[in-house]
Amino acid sequence: MELKIVTGMSGAGKTNLVQVLEDMGYYCVDNLPPNLFGKFVDLILQVQDDGARVALVADVRGGKFFADVYDVLQDLRNKGINYEIIFLEASDEILVRRYKETRRRHPLTKSGSVLEGIQEERKRLQRIRGEADVIIDTSNLKVQDFKQRVADLLQGGADERLLVNVTSFGFKYGLPIDVDLVMDVRFLPNPFYVADLKPQTGLDEAVRDYVLQRPESESFLQKYTDLLLELLPQYVQQGKHHLALAVGCTGGQHRSVAVAEEIGRRLTEAETGAVIRVNHRELQQN
Prior knowledge:
Layout: E1 2-8, H1 14-23, E2 27-29, H2 37-47, E3 53-57, H3 69-78, E4 83-89, H4 92-102, H5 114-124, H6 126-130, E5 134-137, H7 143-158, E6 163-170, E7 181-184, H8 205-212, H9 215-237, E8 242-249, H10 255-269, E9 275-280
Parallel strand pairs: 1-3, 1-4, 2-3, 4-5, 6-8, 6-9, 7-8
Helix pairs in contact: 1-7, 4-5, 8-10, 9-10
């Protein structure tokens, strides 16, 4: 069977994730006490020997029952049942804003402070976050973009090909949380200081040429691409289905965008068999 364990911060988008999973044919159960996971899985296997797609959602809403999740997951491993943990999170600022917009009460709020509840929840989830196979930061994702990203991740794993997400970002807005490898390209000349190029982005030809048509750019891209091409098959050999690469510059508008697009192009042309996706975090905000 194909089993997903969905968890993460309250307000980070687990409901939207469940909708995507249901559309993909998963049987989803929300807020199931972890100590019932094993019995539920056994029931599914009795009814359907193979091909079952199941997603179980567990988080701090389970109260004291949630503390059992680690022993339960170990029991599943001991039974030879493989699973993938998907962890959703978002920044404190975004989560507070979402709670204010929906006027819902955070499950760990005691004194009335949403922020205190969020911070306590983050502490309680620290261990399971460290064990997660996939971490998705929804802070800067619109609902439709989030659903598409989840669909890409899951579909990439379903056909056993490695899914490589290349994301550009701006350091001034913070490091992406849900990435495996980060590359800083602020060593390249910045088009921001060229009057004609400042209002453009790395998707525009003039900016792309300014950034990429330099000896140092070509040297870096060749060496970094060669490194990735050596790493990709090793990730696959270790059973990894998703690889998240991040390319950062100061504002996430020019250099990182152009370089991320070029890395995506070179990996695609190398015909590694991986699925390559390129997205631009800061441009999505415009």
